[in-house]
DNA sequence: TCATGATGTTGCATTAATGCTACATAGCAT
DNA sequence: ATGCTATGTAGCATTAATGCAACATCATGA
């Protein structure tokens, strides 16, 4: 499995989308609808196969009621918050 | 002049990169070096001709010692902070 | 059993973001 | 006048992010 490749190779972006989404009881399709993207895109992001554009990150953060910095990071998240 | 077009048309992203950069006494080239991008890319972003990837937004925020949400927004910034 | 929903996988097409080069302009020193 | 720095503009090439479709798997529930 490939890591999320930004335009700057070897610089993955980690996220807690799935954790936040599940905590709200949302399916990927639900979140995709709220964020206005294809449901597969949520899957790719949760699997960290690529990192989103800033606009998408902003939309997802809003849909999940989180700050961008709470959801996305260049350094891995510790588990369980 | 075109507004920044994300992959979702008609959804610009506003930013305060220039304001924050100038406040630190940095040239675009300086900021570009710190963020690891081409200096023209900073220019495009400051003119809001396009919106950055999330990774780039994170790197710029770090280079400017600001939160992503302080630098980028889907709604226009009020002037002077 | 059958259906349905949620998720994973693969593949293809489109386009925006970025790198890079070259040139122009304006200001500010010297 | 000459040079240097910062910036704007334009064009071209590459690639990652996204949309979308098809199919598979696995639960769960009727």
TrEMBL record, chains A, B:
One of the record's GO molecular function terms: DNA binding
Under PROSITE patterns, the record lists: HTH_CROC1
Report domain HTH cro/C1-type positions: 17-71
Alphabetized UniProt keyword annotations: DNA-binding
- Pfam families in UniProt: HTH_3 (PF01381)
Entries under CDD domains matching the protein: HTH_XRE
Q: How is this protein named in the record?
A: Unannotated protein
Q: Which organism is it from?
A: freshwater metagenome
